[in-house]
Specification:
Elements: H1 2-16, E1 20-26, H2 42-50, E2 58-62, H3 95-100, E3 105-109, H4 120-136, E4 140-144, H5 154-171, E5 175-176, H6 205-217, E6 228-237, E7 240-248, E8 253-261, E9 268-274, E10 282-288, E11 294-304, E12 309-311, E13 315-319, E14 324-332, E15 335-342, E16 346-354, E17 359-367, E18 370-377, E19 384-391, E20 398-404
Parallel strand pairs: 1-2, 1-3, 3-4, 4-5
Antiparallel strand pairs: 6-7, 7-10, 8-9, 8-11, 11-12, 11-13, 14-15, 15-18, 16-17, 16-19, 19-20
Length: about 400
Amino acid sequence: MRTFLAILLLCSLQSSYAQKKIYIIGSSTSACVGPININDCYVSRLSAFYNQFAPLDTTVTTIAASGYNCYRGMPTGYIPPYSGADFQPNPAANITYALSNNPDVILVNYPSNAYEFLPYDSIMYCLRTIKETANAAGKVCYITTSQPRTQFNAAARARLKVVRDSVMNAFGYFALNFWDGLTDPTDLSILPAYRVAGDDIHLNGAGHQLLFQRVQEKQVFNIGLPAQFLNFEAQFKNGQTIVKWMTTQEQNLINYTIERSSDGVVFKTLQIVAAKNSNRVSSYSVTDAQPLNGWNYFRIVTTDKDGTKKNTPVFKVFAATQKLSLQKIVAAGNQLQLQLLNKTGLTATIELVNAGGAVVAIQQFNLNSGLVTASINISNLTNGVYYVRIITTEQAPIIKSFVKN
């Protein structure tokens, strides 16, 4: 009788655990190339972390393969713009195959293959398509950044950094940073502590430990909200900001409150949207017709029927609402470099003002549209604090301080 009860209890416990699945598509890093011991691979570490206690309820499956670029992970049936076999989707290791196994979470890890020559927009289109395919199926999907490569030349390393920035900007919370902390900031190579001896491409066990920590910290299964968020993002376009989000498995929700902030600390309500309370994929969007100039920070607050409120992590977008904005200012040696974002061609007068308020230099520029650089000679200025004042007939002056050393 006791044996029967023990078996019954065990079966009850096992059935109460909902089996969770992580599927990983990508290349050699996720195929566990690099660590001497397979248990040191970040994939193995994830499996061990999620299965610390019996009954084991989480499977972590990698279908990654060495040498794969992101086109190998595109949906089955997709026809790439490149004819080579290395750019064709692999039906046994792509997003379609991963989805066929009904995972809870998908990780996409294509760190560098073909990134030294693929156009940036092609790389991002590839990664966006994979994520959107997963989201449309109601699955959470995280995209990793590029990773450093010591073997690459300086130009190719710089391209990897651009890809890192592009992934972080495009996917926000759903990006996994596999670059920072692993990369030597001086030459963008792999830091010595994380290199595989005689390899110059892959990460060792210590490097994989850092990758594991990045995934583990993300809490990929749940961010503590009463709906499964598949995506949330803000896009600035045509003078407006569009806030979008996708959910599934909504339960007992009244509404979503979209909040905006100028500093990421103090938030104010922008709009309230009724929840659909659907177990299917639901898409939402609101338009901010009067965005703040510069960084706009957002969060989405869920309100339950019992009044409980929870919010997403903060996400942001840069809105250049003025015709001319100052993006960057660098005083190096005898030159002051101003990086300006200009919506339309215009003429600007740039003044340099000392701490006492006197104009010490003045120069006029005819600025083309787009991102432009204006250089001013400051060799005649003594060391100290100065102010740049950019004057146009289109808007209020832009004023920014700088230090000449």
